[in-house]
């Protein structure tokens, strides 16, 4: 009987390792070549992710460098786009704060840019989810 238990334990362990490997393999491509994507959230906001070198016309550009958003507070009109340009030595995100800003959710960037088009008036607060002391506000009139 001990031999049967050993073989069964080996099969369970092997199966567990195989399952973990399959799950981890699906977590990311590991590559850096991404193509621009565009999605529309249910709220009507549009987000665009672009790799370095691609460009999108923006009403306002916010530079993300030296651990800050510059300018941190911007104002746009309904239907206009804000583009965050990432030029720092460490990665950052743009993450909305509160219910009104739920759709603001960029990937992690250290280089490149990300845009968000605002279709409803109001004040939208955001931060870098990796560095919560980095904060900004978009006011949409």
What this model shows, in words?
With 141 residues, the protein is an alpha+beta fold. The chain folds into 2 domains: 1-30; 37-140, Sandwich (Immunoglobulin-like), CATH 2.60.40. Helix content is 17%, strand content 45%. It has 1 helix and 10 strands. It has a 6-stranded mixed beta sheet, with no helix packed on it. The protein has a 4-stranded mixed beta sheet with strand order 5-10-9-7, with no helix packed on it. The longest helix has 24 residues, at 2-25. The chain is globular. It starts with a helix and ends with a strand. Mean pLDDT is 73; it is low at 4-56.
Question: How do the helices and strands line up, and which of them pair or pack?
Answer:
Blueprint lengths: L1 H24 L11 E4 L5 E5 L9 E6 L2 E3 L2 E4 L4 E12 L2 E3 L11 E9 L4 E7 L2 E10 L1
Parallel strand pairs: 3-6, 5-10
Antiparallel strand pairs: 1-2, 2-8, 3-4, 6-8, 7-9, 9-10
What proportion strand? Answer: 35-45%
Please identify the top-level CATH class of the largest domain.
Mainly Beta
Distance between the first and last residues' Cα = 76 Å
Helical residues, percent: 10-25%
Radius of gyration: 21 Å
Number of domains: 2
Strand order of the largest sheet: 1-2-8-6-3-4
Low-confidence segments: 4-56
* Structural class estimated from helices and strands: alpha+beta
């Amino acid at each position: 009987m001990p031999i049967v238990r050993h073989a069964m334990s080996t099969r369970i362990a092997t199966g567990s390792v195989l399952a973990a490997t399959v799950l981890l393999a699906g977590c990311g491509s590991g590559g850096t070549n991404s193509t621009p994507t565009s999605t529309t959230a249910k709220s009507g906001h549009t987000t665009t992710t672009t790799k370095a070198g691609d460009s999108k016309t923006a009403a306002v550009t916010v530079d993300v460098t030296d651990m800050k958003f510059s300018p941190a507070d911007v104002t746009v009109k309904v239907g206009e786009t804000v583009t965050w340009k990432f030029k720092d030595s460490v990665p950052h995100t743009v993450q909305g704060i509160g219910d009104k800003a739920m759709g603001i959710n960029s990937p992690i960037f250290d280089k490149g840019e990300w845009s968000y088009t605002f279709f409803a008036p109001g004040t939208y607060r955001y931060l870098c989810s990796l560095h919560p002391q980095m904060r900004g506000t978009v006011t949409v009139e």
